[in-house]
Structure to design on (433 residues):
């Protein structure tokens, strides 16, 4: 029987997470690693050699206790980024790095060259605007993938990622999530208790991601428009999705987790630029507040900012009909329900390392985990919030999922072409597309 695949271009609130659930059997694909004995060398490639990509590469190479593993290919848009990353990896894992010059690939087509080599797993850590295309190519090549969050910056990108996710599950491929908090033991136990109903029905969730301004790189005379935007990718929405989607999506993901990964009904948001108003910060906002409506009149609230000199706070508060959960920046995990109180006192773990330990273990066992649908879901919840803040309108989940707004610059990307510098969105004037 042929599995039924929902058309990813026709999404509603109930079907968003069902579109890949029916795919239980996978097709024969000789190129796919379906389990690896302890003496099998697991070959890994890194696509995107920035700080997070290099960190992910170090973590996956730390899994050598499960069996031999090697980094065999690397790719980036820029040679200096790859060289710096390679030196870092060689310093930490000299015996697990086999990346000669002929397997160091530079440019917009570098991923194609990586996938043409003999690799089992690819780490996709380029700017998020490239994630749908890169994941699609990895799946077609039959490779397991670690996908950093978010997986897209607009709804067409999410739909493209979902279509590739369906194919990845059909092929039995693994897809590990960059939503690292789901690998934190304290988080798992806390949200596990919420799922068991220990605070009753979740009625509200409030999460904050208040931080400072990340790095910004001054433009050099020799940089083209594309190089300048890629070097400062966080400040251009087509590449990052804005900081609500790129950074605070972790908080959005935990809110979604609290509500059982059910899609919201709508979002009403606001935001703007108060401190980062200079052109060097591109055209993104420096603060957001989003109110999500969930079924049964429940509410999820996300507040985030990137402003220097302001109080920092990354916290989560979840209110249920029988109690509440408080998780502070100081990492206090406390749950109160009626006369009972609970505080996490279990083992602390490196969540970044755990997600790679579990991913490699699943691949070696021939039962690769695949979290592609949840990656897409939380990404889309964040995009919905940004759409509402940019336009100043209440936007429904269905309308957001089916949006036709494609943020990528028109025409083929080329380092010699002129790129538009998008205007800063103005609520009430910027239109929903």
């Amino acid at each position: 029987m042929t599995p039924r695949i929902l058309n990813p271009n026709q999404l509603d609130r109930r079907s968003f997470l069902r579109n890949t659930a029916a795919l239980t059997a996978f097709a024969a694909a000789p190129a796919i690693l379906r389990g690896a004995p302890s003496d099998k060398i697991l070959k890994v490639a890194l696509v995107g050699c920035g700080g997070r990509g290099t960190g992910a590469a170090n973590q996956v190479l730390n899994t050598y206790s499960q069996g031999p593993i090697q980094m065999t290919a690397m790719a980036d848009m820029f040679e200096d980024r790859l060289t710096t990353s390679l030196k870092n990896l060689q310093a930490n894992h000299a015996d697990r790095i086999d990346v000669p010059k002929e397997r160091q690939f530079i440019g917009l087509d570098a991923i194609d060259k990586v996938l043409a080599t003999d690799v089992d797993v690819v780490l996709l850590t380029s700017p998020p605007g490239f994630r749908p295309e890169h994941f699609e190519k990895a799946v077609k090549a039959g490779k397991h993938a670690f996908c950093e969050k978010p997986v897209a910056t607009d709804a067409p990108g999410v739909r493209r990622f979902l279509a590739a996710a369906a194919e990845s599950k059909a092929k039995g491929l693994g897809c590990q999530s960059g939503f690292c908090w789901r690998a934190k033991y304290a988080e798992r136990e806390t949200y596990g208790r919420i799922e068991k109903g220990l605070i009753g029905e979740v009625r509200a969730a409030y999460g904050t991601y208040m931080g400072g301004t990340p790095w910004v790189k001054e433009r050099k005379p020799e940089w083209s428009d594309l190089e300048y935007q890629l070097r400062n990718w966080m400040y251009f929405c087509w590449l990052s999705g804005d900081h609500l989607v790129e950074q605070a999506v972790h908080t959005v993901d935990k809110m979604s987790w609290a509500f059982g990964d059910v899609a919201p009904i709508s979002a009403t948001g606001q935001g703007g630029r108060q401190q980062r108003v200079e052109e060097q910060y591109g055209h993104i906002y420096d603060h957001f507040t989003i109110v999500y409506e969930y079924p049964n009149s429940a509410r999820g609230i996300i507040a985030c900012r990137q402003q220097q000199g302001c109080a920092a706070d990354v916290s989560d508060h979840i209110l249920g009909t029988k109690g509440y959960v408080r998780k502070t920046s100081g990492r206090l995990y406390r749950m109160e329900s009626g006369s009972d109180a609970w505080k996490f006192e279990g083992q602390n773990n490196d969540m970044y390392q755990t997600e790679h330990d579990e991913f490699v273990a699943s691949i070696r066992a021939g039962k690769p985990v695949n979290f592609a649908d949840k990656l897409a879901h939380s990404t889309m919840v964040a995009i919905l919030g940004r759409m509402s803040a940019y336009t100043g309108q209440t936007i429904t989940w269905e309308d957001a999922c089916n949006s036709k707004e494609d943020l990528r610059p028109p025409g083929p990307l080329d380092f010699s072409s002129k790129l538009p510098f998008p205007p800063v969105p103005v609520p009430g004037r910027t239109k929903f597309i």
